What we know:
By secondary structure, this protein is mainly beta. The chain has a single domain, classed as Lipocalin (Beta Barrel). The protein is built from 1 helix and 9 strands. Strand 4 (61-65) and strand 5 (72-80) form a beta hairpin.
Amino acid sequence: MEQTIQATQLNQQKCYRFQIIKAQRNNEGKLARTKNVGMAYLMEGQETYTVRLWTFVNDKFFMVMNRYDSSKFMLMSRELNKNQQSRNKYFWNIIGSGKALSSQNVIELNFDLLPEPIYLSMFPEERTGPVVLPNVDGF
């Protein structure tokens, strides 16, 4: 019974959603949203964001902060290691970078294969606040 309660508590972690947008600079140099292109998710207590882009609906990407500079980020993909005897479960591939633009309240995301940056809001969606997910791996 106690194990069931602990497992349920693990699956009840809060998750925060962050909008990812395309934007253009206006005459004042501020970013103006042109289109919503995805979402990023961050589980409470975690450091890795899960990034979903509507263009790549079946793929998920990951974003982590640079350990030496909190204004820089790495964008990564991962693939399952097919060698079951390996210590590493996944292969991680760096596919881009991010840079915090604090004055704009966004993180500029530069994917290696996308011609222009997209922007991740630094603040979670207010209308949803933290949400409870039924399954931690449900992204």
